Amino acid sequence: MADAAHDDHHDHGEFIAHHFDSAEQQFDSGKLGIWLFLVTEVLFFSGLFVAYTLYRNHHPEIFDQAHVFLDKYLGGLNTIVLLFSSLTMALAVRAAQLGRNKNCGIYILITMVCAAMFLGVKAIEYSHKWDIGIFPGSLFALNYQHPEPTMIAGISDYLIWISMIPAILLVLFSVASIVGLLTKKTVFSKLMLGMAITVGGYFLGVFAGYSYMEAIMDHGDESHAAVTVEHDDQNIHMVSMTIDDEKSGAGHDGDHKEGDHAHAEGDHGHGGHHEQAYDKHHPDPKSLSKDVKIFFSIYYCMTGLHAIHIIAGIIALAWVYWRCLLGHWRTDYFGPVDYVGLYWHLVDLIWIYLFPLLYLID
Amino acid sequence: MVDKTQRNKIFGTPETTFLNHSKGFASWAFTVDHKRIGIMYMIGVTIALFLAGFFALVLRSHLFSFDGQGLPFYGKLSNADYNQMFTLHGAVMVFSFIIPSIPGALGNIVLPMMLGTKDVAFPRMNLASFYLWIIGTGCLLAAILFGGGLDTGWTFYTPYSIETDTGVIYATFGAFILGFSSIFTGLNFLVTVNTMRAKGQTWFKLPLFIWSLYATAIIQVLATPVLGITLLMLIAESTLHIGIFDPRYGGDPVLFQHFFWFYSHPAVYIMILPAMGVISELISVYSQKRIFGYSFIAFSSVAIALLGFLVWGHHMFTSGQSVVMTLIFSAITFTVAIPSAVKVFNWLATLYKGSILLNTPMCYALAFIFLFGIGGLTGLFLGALSVDIHLHDTYFVVAHFHFVMVGGTLTALLGGLYHWWPKIFGRMYNDTLGRVSCFLVFVGFNVTFFPQFVMGARGMPRRYAQYDPEFQIFHQISTIGAFVLGFGILGAFLVLVHAAFYGKLAGANPFKAASLEWQSSSPPDFHNFTHTPILNDPYDFDALVYDEELDTYISREFADPAKVPPRKEPVHH
């Protein structure tokens, strides 16, 4: 023992860091590390879940009134997308464990596309809410005509603004991919192509969400050909609700009459099943508690933080994808895919909790 | 059997060490070596300590007179300035100094070496932790430079923190970042201790410093994320008014207190547990006696970590909690005293019949036991409901937590620095001057904070810029003590800095300590050990013998068999 010289030449594989004795030790350390990281993530979200629980307990009526603004079909679509991405992530881990880099890359790519698609649907949801004045906190100013929320027709300006970043990224990645192809940097080119396809997933999500919104609006407004954006203040009577709105009582009668009148017309026009579903997302703002905005604060905090985790997940997945292209994964070295996979499952799991808590309150 | 050149190579004065194996700014700024990161942490937290200490002296000077003493070069502090001073003192001390001090500086250097490994499990994350510390501290200080100061108290209580126009957002963002720095350190330590222990080093062969760092890391990983989300919500509240904490928008301000203390009470144990670990090492080594009740001390660390999560409500006895909750929190608060007392009694039992060496680290260790004893026992006063109603938000509370945080953690940090300094820099400090500094710290500390118990019990509220003249004498004694304490701490650091450059060579193991880090050269090699260290019991001092040639203690296995004296106590394993 005493004469044992310091052994600085272990059987170090290509990817074993100098301070680890073996691949197994490195893998175990990484695995424990990622699990602990996931524990911190759960606790990080826990504050918001506690806030949710407390306010739902103290003010159940807020949650009752506010959740109808969320569309459970869009939320459900995102749930399915994320569940599917968890499946492809698990398959990617399996492929990496078997050292099949190509298969692993394909599965990772599908996972990334699903992640971006989730964000696309989320962009539709957010932009629709902003259109009718559902902003977080003090910016909250519910503002649409009841029962015909005309402002939601057409493509939202907010959606265009949000989509700027993915659009720019799409162009950049595509150009980079072509440049890579021309300069014979194959791996780089493939990586950029993969990222461009990923960003394409975002637009797929936007398209899916937009088509859905159009569909329910078409059904809801068959007889109202004129339902488009009409920014004529004299024709459209806006019912606005802000937190400082003290004189809503004074204008209450007049509003009510017009509302009744419009509603009667609407009923007369079709009164079908879709009309109800359509209307359900846009109840009379006057009937709502002024504290409904707390629900949306919690909604934006939770889903926003979750969306940030999705974006972080895409970046982590892109790194793993790149290493797939480099052919790094071997049967004795696949740790990073495993770790990113665990993270991705957690992000999925958090959504699995968020969806019923926020969308399925009834 | 013993190869002399081999022995000299291991325990002699090394030519290349982690300090000189590479040079230049980049070799430090981008290092992933845990020892260099530890030294950078050491420098960082020292700067934070002196900065926050400066704020403290400004406070104490102001309080010298009941209506505010004029300060040299500045004049009288306004009440608003005073509020900023105590807030910055608290925020910088807690978030930038005490929490990262022992784990970041001493733990980083010592933990991997005690495990006989080359580095922590995630070296780059370790470096990231330090850079997050810099960014977070920078954000805290940005509150002064760009945010117009900070006057909420370090606790950022709502609703005031939402209403004030000072730099709450900068400061909370800084604390958020510092939280992640802390999480990174804790996560790294947990994984390192789990997966990278030396071959054959089972859990009960670990030094107690490791146990305490492990317990600390559990808290860092489990509690800090909650602070993170709380501070994010506070930032969202003050920018967007999301209505979770702000009563004007339907929120609940006491909810913030619950969230905040769910982290910040366990954080108190993040501050004190590593200190307890240091003391366990020091008491045992300088008594040259096996630590008494090893497993009790080990498990009491874990018990403190777990119980620490269940007592946060005792900060809100007067915030309108229900009676049942206050009763439960009070009861659990008392139970924390049990594992803490277990430690103190075991340290005292270790001292009994030990061959005590009263050098500088041991002086600090003894000071710790005395000061922590007072700090801990006065905590019981505050945990008792009826007494707390009277003492809440008085100087009694201030004195209590300073006895634990300064008398405990800072004293242990200094003791630990003196203990491991010869290992880290390979040079010995001036023991006489070290002990003088310890004496000044001890006397200065008691003069500062003991009067605060008295005036607190008589009703002097904390955080007041002006006060009733009847308390002036106590404040004046306290201020004088604060300056003595300040000089003591400054002196302690000067002695250490002098030693790092000009001290005489220390040798590999000058204190006859048995844990693994002493089996490396001083300063250690870049890879910590140039040989595979021999695993022995960290508290079996009989395993070491004096080597005249090298003037240091070495393991029996390396000594000349002809000169090795027989073992005094049986080998345990």
Task: Summarize it.
Chain A has 362 residues and is mostly helical. Chain A has helices spanning 23-58, 60-66, 72-97, 101-131, 157-182, 186-220, 252-269, 273-280, 292-325, 335-359; strands at 141-144, 239-242.
Low-confidence spans of chain A: pLDDT under 50, at least 5 residues? 1-12, 222-277
Number of helices of chain B: 16
One letter per element, helices H and strands E, the order of chain B comes to HHHHHHHHHHHHHHHHEE
Order of helices and strands of chain A: HHHHEHHEHHHH
Number of domains of chain B: 2
Describe the global form of chain A: globular
What is the end-to-end distance of chain B? 22 Å
Helix content of chain A: 55-70%
Q: Helix/strand/pairing class of chain A, anyone?
A: mainly alpha
Q: Shape of chain B from CA axes?
A: globular
Question: What is the annotated CATH architecture of chain A?
Answer: Up-down Bundle
Radius of gyration of chain B: 24 Å
β-sheet strand percentage of chain A? under 5%
Strand order of the largest sheet of chain B: 1-2
Would you identify the CATH H-level superfamily of chain A? Cytochrome c oxidase, subunit III, four-helix bundle
Of all chain pairs, the largest interface belongs to: A-B, 47 and 53 residues
As for the CATH topology of chain A, it is: Four Helix Bundle (Hemerythrin (Met), subunit A)
Low-confidence stretches of chain B: none
What is the assigned CATH homologous superfamily of the largest domain in chain B? Answer: Cytochrome c oxidase-like, subunit I domain
Overall mean confidence score, pLDDT of chain B: 93
CATH fold type of the largest domain in chain B: Cytochrome C Oxidase, Chain A
